[in-house]
Amino acid sequence: MTNDHIVRRKLSDEVFDRLAGMITSGEIGTGETLPSERVLMERFGVGRPAIREAMQALANLGLIQISHGERAKVREITARSLVRQVDLAAQLLLNASPTNLDHLKQARRFFERGMVRSAAEQATPEDIVQLRDALAAQRREIGNVPAFIRADMLFHRQITRISGNPIFEAVSEAMLSWLQAHRTDLLIWPGNEEVTLREHAEIIDRIAAHDAEGAEAAMVRHLDRSADLYGPRPTAG
Amino acid sequence: MTNDHIVRRKLSDEVFDRLAGMITSGEIGTGETLPSERVLMERFGVGRPAIREAMQALANLGLIQISHGERAKVREITARSLVRQVDLAAQLLLNASPTNLDHLKQARRFFERGMVRSAAEQATPEDIVQLRDALAAQRREIGNVPAFIRADMLFHRQITRISGNPIFEAVSEAMLSWLQAHRTDLLIWPGNEEVTLREHAEIIDRIAAHDAEGAEAAMVRHLDRSADLYGPRPTAG
DNA sequence: TAGGTATACTGATCATACCAGTTCGCGTCA
DNA sequence: TGACGCGAACTGGTATGATCAGTATACCTA
Questions:
Q1: All structural domains of chain B
Q2: Phi and psi torsions of A186, nearest 5°
Q3: Which in A47, A98, A227, B140 has the greatest CB count within 10 A?
Q4: On chain D, which bases lie within 7 A of the protein's CB atoms?
Q5: ipTM of model
Q6: Using the beta-carbon criterion (under 8 Å), do A236 and B62 form an inter-chain contact?
Q7: What pLDDT, in 10s, does the model give residues A216-234?
Q8: B122 touching A (Cβ < 8 Å)
């Protein structure tokens, strides 16, 4: 039996902590550069592998950016960089089982329902203008399927933006990109663009009228329609 | 001007892809072991650093587990392992600015509101029994602050569990642990346990009655109370 | 002064050696 | 004969040094 509790920390973990501390404490601000690997190994009194492993880990977290030939730069952490960090693993998770995909679709429905309701409650006239602009931009992309889908995603993100919370924006963006990668929901064929645009327009109208219930209902109809096109899958909740 | 598009992929990235492919394709199933580093470097015709960097990255993603002396084991990807992956970065993000903390609190309110509404709509009698059990378990922990908080978190997670969606469970668990680390919301002092328990009880009653509106209102009151205790902070939405 | 090139710096990769855990079989002893 | 224990042969972890390959900069030239 191994001692699961007594984990011997690797050397690179210590280095990781020290570097992370230098960054989070502000000693090295956003955009500034870290010392070179060779300098760090001398300062910390460790070998180069320890430094490199720690810095790779920091790069994987999105805290720093490493480029060949340049010194590592400190990057800003945002909600978006957080979801980007998890992007690959999320794809793998979705590929692992179709059940996971169903769960994500359900999560998205949950998210969009609440989001549009919140938007209806607190949308300002400027928000409405932006939504209508996004809708018009999407209409201009009819015929260009990839651009139309991009505009579609932008519309939904615009709704989350009304909340003023970047976490919601990042979550919306991530969910949509994951679903898109699996060619499900949110997929638009030629011929269906008008339906999509009409539904979006109604959602905007409900938001503009501060009709939370109506906006939520319109959003649910919108999401269910695209889901139904892939066969009637009885989704819970 | 650097060519942002023409990024020269690192060798370890290629190795990473091949290893990730071996895992996701099922060639190496969950629980099985990867070949040793020395075997892999020979098979792929690369040096040990390339293998190590790739495997460290896989470990950071939570795809494999590396232990000194043993061969790397493939781990199952779950929604929970996904959030664990961003756990550290999330902490840093929250520490970076109090605004981020507000955003997270808002996200949690959003999440719990919708979740309890969904729970009220689809809760089965067994779900209600489990909720009441969780409440009783929490009552038994009065006097033991850490255990009481743990039980509190478990109660909220229990609500998400009704959805049957592991993503919701993982999100709930993550949000609560992040907020707890910042000693905000959800924090209970001695003397307030009874209030918390009473509010939880009412939430359960509303869920049992399939009263979505009432359950949501009760949950909002519950969350706002603990928030107010930290000073009246006008949160949007 | 503008341009380009040489040089010194950076990270990327490799080879090798050695340290430090884990596993497992072989030999010893009861 | 069986159980114990020790060690050999794995495993990953770390250090060192060399070399390759990008980048930035200072210097020199036109």
A1: 11-74 (1.10.10.10), 80-228 (1.20.120.530)
A2: 45, 5
A3: A227
A4: 10-18, 21-24
A5: 0.86
A6: no
A7: 999 999 998 876 554 344 4
A8: yes
